[in-house]
Amino acid sequence: MTIIALLLDSLVIIALFMSAFLWLLASRNRLRRLSRFEELDSADINRIVTSMNRVQILNARAAMATALSALFAALRVILDIIAIAI
Fold first, then answer.
1. Is 62 buried (19+), middle (13-18) or exposed (0-12) by CB count in 10 A?
2. pLDDT tens for residues 2-41?
3. Deepest of 23, 33, 35, 74, by most Cβ within 10 A of its Cβ?
4. Cα Rg of the chain (Å, integer)
């Protein structure tokens, strides 16, 4: 039981670090600001859409890592409850 508990604890920690790293990657990208006097061309729109898509992908991966860490933590709590009941 202790090996499984240590494995679940390790998986929780790894998933939390992975989630934090992905949120950091998603939040560090900044777009060049456009003046209201500038005319938007296709390159500007392409840059904006590409950046939004990349951030959305990183946010989805970070949310998945967060959900995975919550699942591992829930399994760890369930394991403790089973160990107490036995």
1. buried
2. 898 889 899 999 999 999 998 888 888 776 677 778 888 8
3. 23
4. 21
Chain segment 34-73, per-residue pLDDT in tens: 777 888 889 888 988 998 899 899 899 999 999 999 999 9
User: Which uninterrupted H or E stretch holds 66?
Assistant: helix 42-85
Name the packing angle between helices 42-85 and 2-28 (round to 10°). 160
DSSP string, 3-59: HHHHHHHHHHHHHHHHHHHHHHHHHH--PPP--TTSPP-HHHHHHHHHHHHHHHHHH
Q: How many residues does the chain have?
A: 86
